[in-house]
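CORE FACILITY INTAKE
Project code: CF-77B
Contact: R.S. (postdoc)
Sample description: multi-component assembly, two entities in total
Requested service: structural model of the whole complex
Turnaround: standard
Below are the sequence entries exactly as provided by the requester. Do not edit them.
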Amino acid sequence: KRKDRVFVWGFCYSGALGVPSFVKPDVGWKKPRRIQPTPYRLETEEKISSAACGYGFTLLSSSTTDIIKVWGMGLNKDSQLGFQRSRRDLTKGYEYVLEPSPIPLPLEKPQQTRVLQVSCGRAHSLILTDSEGVFTMGNNSYGQCGRKVVEDETYSESHLIHQLKDFDSRVVQVVCGQDHSLFRTKKGAVYACGWGADGQTGLGHYNITSVPTKLRGDIDGVNIIQVSSYGDCCLAVSDEGDVFGWGNSEYLQLACVTETTQVNVPRHLPFKIGKIKEAACGGTGNIVLTEEGNVFVWGYGILGKGPNVTETAVPEMIPPSLFGWSDFNPDIRVAHVRCGLSQFAALTNRGELFVWGKNLRGCLGTGRMEDQYFPWRVTVPGEVVDVACGVDHMVSMVKSF
Amino acid sequence: LNAAPGCAPRQHVRFLPTPGDGGTTELVAVRVPVLADHPLVRGPRFRHLKIGAGHRLDLKASGVFVLGIGHGNKLLTDLYNCHLTKVYTVGGLFGKATDDFSDTGTLVEKTTFDHITREKLERILAVIQGTHHKALLMHSNIDMKTQEAYELAVKGLIRPMGKSPPIITAIRCLQFALPEFHLEIHCLHETQQYLRKMVHEIGLELKSSAVCTQVRRIRDGVFTLDDALLRTQWNLQSVQNAIQNCRLKVKAEIEKTL
């Protein structure tokens, strides 16, 4: 029978990989491992359906009806993993969590509600349930948790988990940017809250927003089927294959429509590359996947087209032969694209994972420490179903053979 | 070969005495064939033929086998340095495992194989291809950070130009009829025993076991099955025709790579 497994790799000292023996070895001969350069299997009790990597922490969630549905590991200085009661001193909480620890959610019906998706930003996290709205925890100094900003609030060891319920319809996707949050509802509308100094909330101003507000601009009335963000730039894909962008444009991400470096209203990006199926935003570069299975990149940084292409405002296609396409295998297609802060990941329909970008602390998982200028296959013993990219680590859900 | 008309004997100029008119002997320059070139003096032209072999072929395997004759032996080393891929058709049988991975060895274990489907096999083949592709890029000794490495990778032309362990560049399932299956394998620097071992390992990955029934090389660099001569065609005329046909191809390939 094919089992579901979770593989992690990247920087270990923050505890984000969930293997305590990397940081505090349990046996005398083991040495603390700073970087895990190749995929390492993480043992989990339940089947993990969704994972998200933040800036030094990870959230794993399973769609079970048990009481414990979400586990977190890594940095917890802003309670982005909830309150983790310390075993030594029962009044205090842990600042670093080294292994996947359950996060207690204040659900009304804990035995019926299922967690659909999790998302992590710099110091906050969002958990999406199917019937009880969105739960937010973590840093709220910019209102990114969707509640009013309290002056001089201490976020560490906080028990507060806020619940967001009033949207125009059920929320189907939550996305965390660096210090802002985006919510996509079933009707195709997008809501945002949090820091807006780069216009990443898309609400027409550069102030912070502490209540999720609906976005207008070019996406008003458009049925959005996917939203993506990780840094300060955001992209949204409509059901007709158009892509809209807003937020930071200092790295030419939105330079095809405007010369300004901050865009605070969603603008349509008129690319003539075909119908777009999926988009992903990184810190300085963006990537989209078209219906035919072609991958286009633009922005700044290591884009995946060799060491000479470092910045482009117009999307450039990555040759499919780099993903294993050849006359011998003509039916290999890229199925999903994901973005970390300065890394890109692509999943093919054969279940292979290709990564490229800056290899910060071994997060690419190639086994080497050098930056990767074109897509490189990661050897994972299994068929990769999904991958979540963070700043310096990655988590993948894999089906064994 | 010896019966074919050889080159004409050399001619040289000799001054021969001929009886001139009136009794005096005069020296007249006459073109006369050199006696040393006469066939009866020299003997048969070819007594030994230097034949060299290209990439080795096992006793139990069959297929294209490249030979170099005479001056062609020098081209053999050049062809080896080109590191071109070879294509094999490998036949396998699920359910048995033997000690030398082929069906004529001593049986080690028997397993069931009803759970194996074509999709599972293709999945394993995709993983094999993936890991070998990585090995290909790593052994090719090109710095991954350069622009030319990127361009070569796009065109798919990166290949190891020196010694390397066996690498499979492409593998594909041609036929699948339980318990038999046939694979087409494109590889570099391999031996037939390595291919049999690969069949055995595929059987293990599929949680069963497999033995190799047939290994047949269908291409070796530029030489395909169409250029190959059958046992019945091992005569002078066909050999000469074959050399003629392949000469251009070999020259083009060597010039392209070196």
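Facility notes:
- Chain B has two domains: 1-48, 51-257.
- Chain B is about 30% helix and 30% strand.
Invoice: internal transfer
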